[in-house]
């Protein structure tokens, strides 16, 4: 289990907000941008926003046209984050981190590693062995049942940093429709697959996953303060 941390010196809590209804992607993007602008100007605090999206694809700044293999299957949105194509949909927990890296070491690489460690620690609470893979962003699970060397991705990570404030974040597959991935080459990787808690035989609820995420977040980033999603 990794113990990489990015705590603030002042231990100021991060707002922890959960949306119970699917959030349209353009609305979420607009909300994030507004919050980041205010955070850059020190007009609001840090925020972790937990939500689900309707079924859709997002294209990062490195997305390749050929990796959108079925452009008519689901709506496609430009994300403005790093990375390539990814899928979001019901049954997938998305967490957007709007954090002030001016207070957390100003190290984007360390920030990404710490997010991966947060996910790995969350999975470990359910006896799922997640791994970081050299040269690949995200968190992976070994699948010897599917062949030698096979790894499936259970969590994607895509971030953007503007004036040392982060937005976008992580997505963890709880029980989404994995067939929806067929319209893209996820994150540009065609020789491995995708998986979920359900696919691995772990039948847990979204609130159980959220509780584990909260505990792991506190281990790696510090205290949180709960509130409504629209605060």
CATH architectural name: 2-Layer Sandwich
The radius of gyration computed from the alpha-carbon positions, rounded to a whole number of angstroms, is 17 Å
Please work out how many helical segments DSSP would assign. Answer: 3
N- and C-termini, Cα separation? 33 Å
Structural class: alpha/beta
In the CATH scheme, the class would be Alpha Beta
> Uncertain segments of ≥5 residues (pLDDT<50)?
none
Q: Give the count of structural domains.
A: 1
Q: What's the count of strands? A: 12
As a percent range, the share of helical residues equals 10-25%
Write a structural description.
- The structure is a single chain.
- Strand 7 (130-133) and strand 8 (136-142) form a beta hairpin.
- The chain has a single domain (14-228), classed as 2-Layer Sandwich (BirA Bifunctional Protein, domain 2), CATH 3.30.930.
- With 231 residues, the protein is an alpha/beta fold.
- Strands 1, 2, 6, 7, 8, 9, 10, 11 and 12 form a nine-stranded mixed sheet that branches. A three-stranded mixed sheet has the order 4-3-5, with no helix packed on it.
- The mean pLDDT is 91.
- It contains three helices and twelve strands.
